[in-house]
Automatic annotation (TrEMBL):
SUPFAM superfamilies: MoaD/ThiS, Molybdopterin synthase subunit MoaE. Belongs to the MoaE family. Its EC number is 2.8.1.12. CDD domains: MoaE, Ubl_MoaD. The keyword Oxidoreductase does not apply. It comes from Candidatus Nitronereus thalassa. It comes from the Bacteria. The keyword Methyltransferase does not apply. Pathway: Cofactor biosynthesis; molybdopterin biosynthesis. Keywords: Molybdenum cofactor biosynthesis. Pfam families: MoaE, ThiS. Gene3D superfamilies: 3.10.20.30, Molybdopterin biosynthesis MoaE subunit. This is Molybdopterin synthase catalytic subunit.
């Protein structure tokens, strides 16, 4: 069977191609067979897969070596995400409450901090404390000057992971509402990138949940950052 494998971030540079990778496997192939084929095509990438520095995603879920593959699967190779170490989505926008959908977004355009805070406040009159985290594009990173930043995301899987973070925050912390918003595409220095807004009865709970949300976002969300520097383009694998 012929499998199409999506590439993201620094893998495009490693393989010197922007197009998806095509791999031929037997009809009963597994992820371990896919990794073996890729290792034959590109030993460096194969080594990253074997060491789990690059992960395999099947239908928006991280796969294991024994995961069986079919020609209709959506397969992707995920390099380390921009913010951290290293079931097909059944929901559609038509089945998600419109207002709740606005609480978790990945979008190209900029956003209004005041409008997003007000969106959270309107969810409940019990909210007495709001904590926010705003990430902005800075002009220096890891000892290099940066002139601009471009964010790439895995459409569908990124939104799914952000929804999971919101749901876990609502479940695990004593909060009332959570909003998570991340931009993609080209972003100029000084512009907004990511916003977390947490509403709770008390400030301490809001602070704790806000910190957890941004830390978790950086760990599990398939978003990659490309920095423009005087030395050229640099894919950022990790940052604090």
């Amino acid at each position: 069977m012929t499998l199409t494998v999506k590439l993201f971030g620094m893998l495009k540079t490693l393989l010197k191609q922007d197009a998806d990778l095509t791999v031929e496997l037997s009809a009963e192939g597994q992820v371990s067979d896919l990794i073996e084929k890729i290792q034959a095509l590109n030993p460096e990438l194969g080594e990253l897969l074997l060491k789990k520095k690059v992960l395999v995603s099947v239908n928006h879920d991280i796969a294991h070596g024994e995961t069986v593959l079919t020609p209709t699967d959506e397969i992707a190779l995920l390099p380390p995400f921009a913010g951290g170490a290293t079931n097909r989505e059944s929901e559609t926008m038509s089945t998600v409450d419109a207002e709740e959908a606005m609480l978790v977004r990945v979008q190209r355009e900029n956003f209004s901090i005041d409008e997003e805070i007000e969106r959270v406040k309107q969810r409940s009159k019990r909210i007495g404390g709001i904590a926010t985290f705003l990430g902005t594009a800075r002009d220096r990173s890891q000892g290099r000057d940066v002139s601009s930043i471009t964010f790439e995301h895995y459409e569908g899987m990124a939104q799914k992971k952000l929804r999971e973070i919101r749901e876990r925050a609502l479940q695990d912390f004593d909060i009332i509402e959570a909003l998570i918003l991340h931009r993609y595409g080209a972003i100029d220095i000084g512009e907004n990138i990511v916003l977390i807004v947490i509403g709770a009865e008390h400030r301490a709970d809001a602070f704790k949940a806000c910190k957890w949300c941004i830390d978790e976002l950086k760990q599990i969300t398939p978003i990659w950052k490309l920095e423009q520097t005087p030395e050229g383009e640099v894919w950022v694998e990790q940052h604090p």
